[in-house]
Write a structure and sequence with these properties.
With 118 residues, the chain is an all-beta fold. The protein has a single domain, classed as Jelly Rolls. The chain has no helices and ten strands. The mean pLDDT is 89.
Length: 118
């Protein structure tokens, strides 16, 4: 696993850098393909009793100027640390970026990790 984000504050919107779906591993001297992104969040508080919640938006691209939003995952519970979400990456693109929209989330922490094939 490769850490993408560790304990990011969820009180603000954020996005990751572009992540290569296929990358060269210098140690193993081979190409590795991104298979999944694991999402773990905890201690969320919301702005109202019936929250809209946040969203994880998965953007794909073959070139940075042309972006496609292919998936959105709702974050509407206050703790996902015991049952981590696993997002399966679509391998027919060159890059992926994860955006977070906080909506009604006031506080909380999120971590993302990338799972590559071996």
């Amino acid at each position: 696993m490769s850490l993408i984000i560790l304990e990011e504050d969820m009180s603000n919107n954020f996005e990751t850098d572009w992540i290569r779906i296929i990358k060269y591993d210098n140690k193993l001297k081979t190409l590795k393909k991104l298979k999944s992104i694991q999402i773990k969040f905890r201690d969320l508080t919301f702005n109202n009793p019936y929250p809209i919640g946040g969203e994880m938006i998965f953007c794909y691209s073959n070139h940075y100027d042309f972006i496609s939003i292919l998936d959105t995952v709702a974050i509407d519970t206050n703790n996902q640390s015991a049952n981590i979400l696993i997002y399966n990456v679509r391998a027919n693109f060159n890059f992926i970026k994860v955006k977070f929209e906080k909506n009604d989330i006031v506080s909380g922490y999120i971590s993302l990790a990338a799972g590559y094939d071996i």
